[in-house]
Design a protein that fits this description.
- The complex is a heterodimer.
- By secondary structure, chain A is mainly beta.
- Chain A is built from no helices and eleven strands.
- Chain A has strands at 4-7, 10-13, 19-25, 31-37, 44-49, 56-57, 65-67, 73-78, 87-94, 104-105, 109-113.
- In chain A, strands 2, 4, 5, 6, 9, 10 and 11 form a seven-stranded mixed sheet that branches. Chain A has a four-stranded antiparallel sheet with strand order 1-3-8-7, with no helix packed on it.
- Chain A is globular.
- Chain B is mainly β.
- The chains are: A mainly beta, B mainly beta.
- At the A-B interface, β5 and β10 of A face β5, β9 and β10 of B.
């Protein structure tokens, strides 16, 4: 069991470039989440998904898009990167819908936008 | 608005006891989590409280008072490996996690 994996681990982009972050989980979890973590701030929810084919906006969705074409994968896209999107991005998954189950996190992607 | 407050940083001595506090104001309450996050790593689950009282798990204990909007994480017999950030998160009425900024715990020999 790999748990939750994320690719890439590190990336440097120039302003205006685009990229996709991939999250994969092998625990058959329904819920998946994308967070960003910035110094001095709590984890902030970008988008989430309650199941295959569904997505919803979180607290800070602007500038990001997501897709959940397969249950095990959750993709986060940046269409036109901005320096304000420099952050550490974490993907997480949870077993059941609308529950208080523990969220399992991937190792994170460290993104720098110049 | 929703708010989670934790101290930014705490320092303690190896072998001692430390208590990390968390106060919250959220729209609804469906439980409170504590996570541990070592520098450069992902958060990992420590504890979950939904009823008032103390939950003990080895060297770590977590307490909840819903009427006071208050929780604490108690770490006993501190070890150097406990140096990490400790994140408090509340499950709101929409079953979303609202996260505190975390408390960085520094352990000194």
């Amino acid at each position: 069991n790999a748990g939750v994996t994320q690719t890439p681990k590190f990336r440097v982009l120039k302003t205006g470039q685009s990229m996709t972050l991939l999250c994969a989980q092998d625990m058959n979890h329904e819920y998946m989440y994308w967070y960003r973590q910035d110094p001095g701030m709590g984890l902030r929810l970008i988008h989430y998904s309650v199941g295959e084919g569904t997505t919803a906006k979180g607290e800070v969705p602007d500038g990001y898009n997501v897709s959940r074409l397969k249950k095990q994968n959750f993709l986060l896209g940046l269409e036109s990167a901005a320096p304000s999107q420099t952050s550490v991005y974490f993907c997480a998954s949870t077993q059941t819908v609308g529950s208080t189950d523990t969220q399992y996190f991937g190792p994170g992607t460290r993104l720098t936008v110049l | 608005g929703q708010n989670i407050d934790q101290p930014t940083e705490m320092t303690a001595t190896e072998g001692a006891i430390v208590q990390i506090n968390c106060t919250y104001q959220t729209s609804g309450f469906n439980g409170l989590f504590w996570y541990q996050q070592h520098a450069g790593e992902a958060p990992t689950f420590l504890s979950y409280n939904v009823l008032d009282g103390l939950e003990e798990k080895g060297r770590f204990s977590s307490f909840l008072s819903r009427s006071k909007g208050y929780s604490y994480l108690l770490l006993k017999e501190l070890q150097m490996k406990d140096s990490a950030s400790y994140l408090c998160a509340v499950v709101d009425s929409n079953y979303q996690l609202i996260w505190g900024a975390g408390t960085k715990l520094i352990i000194k020999p």
